[in-house]
Specification:
This protein is of the alpha+beta class. The protein has 3 helices and 7 strands; from the N terminus they run H-E-E-H-H-E-E-E-E-E. It has one domain (2-155). It has helices spanning 2-49, 70-73, 76-81; strands spanning 55-58, 67-68, 89-90, 92-99, 124-131, 141-146, 153-155.
């Protein structure tokens, strides 16, 4: 009887922790691949057009179940970037915010993130990913990366 109680207590602690780690891993693998794709495409676009391209959030809202992104792939900005996503369905929503040289990126930062600089010498972009990994739509996992700092900032990972 004591063994059963110990196993039940361990299961109550371990299973939620495992599920949280599984959600983090799922989000990280998608976000890292999409960030890499968007970074390369933004740099290519800048070489050809001398400016970074702002891209609206796509899919517009994150969902705990993978969403079809064919509508995104036919929008003007996604077509102009020539994005080739890792999957045809994504869990996270991706947005690219851009600014000119000397423009402070701080006002464009999503809440809770910090800017690596306030007056960059070159144009800049921020890639913002928002994910619903646990099905609770009140709190999202959020990721941010920019050409000003290659560090990925993370908020509410696994949520």
């Amino acid at each position: 009887m004591i063994v059963v109680a110990i196993v039940a207590i361990l299961a109550a602690v371990v299973v939620p922790a495992f599920m949280g780690e599984a959600r983090k891993t799922k989000a990280n693998s998608e976000v890292n691949a999409m960030f890499a794709e968007l970074q390369v495409k933004e740099e290519q676009y800048k070489l050809e057009n001398n400016v970074y391209l702002t891209v609206p959030a796509c899919p517009t809202t994150p969902n705990s179940k993978p969403q079809d992104i064919s509508a995104c792939m036919s929008s003007a900005s996604w077509l102009a970037l020539r994005v080739i996503p890792i999957e045809s369905k994504l869990r996270c929503s991706y947005q690219v915010i851009t600014g000119a040289a000397g423009a402070d990126p701080t006002p464009s930062m999503p809440a809770g993130f910090t800017s690596p600089t306030t007056s960059p010498a070159t144009g800049w972009y921020l890639i913002h990913a928002k994910c619903d990994m646990d099905g609770v739509t009140t709190t999202f996992s959020e990721y941010l990366q920019s050409n000003l700092d290659q560090t990925t900032q993370v908020r509410n990972e696994g949520k």
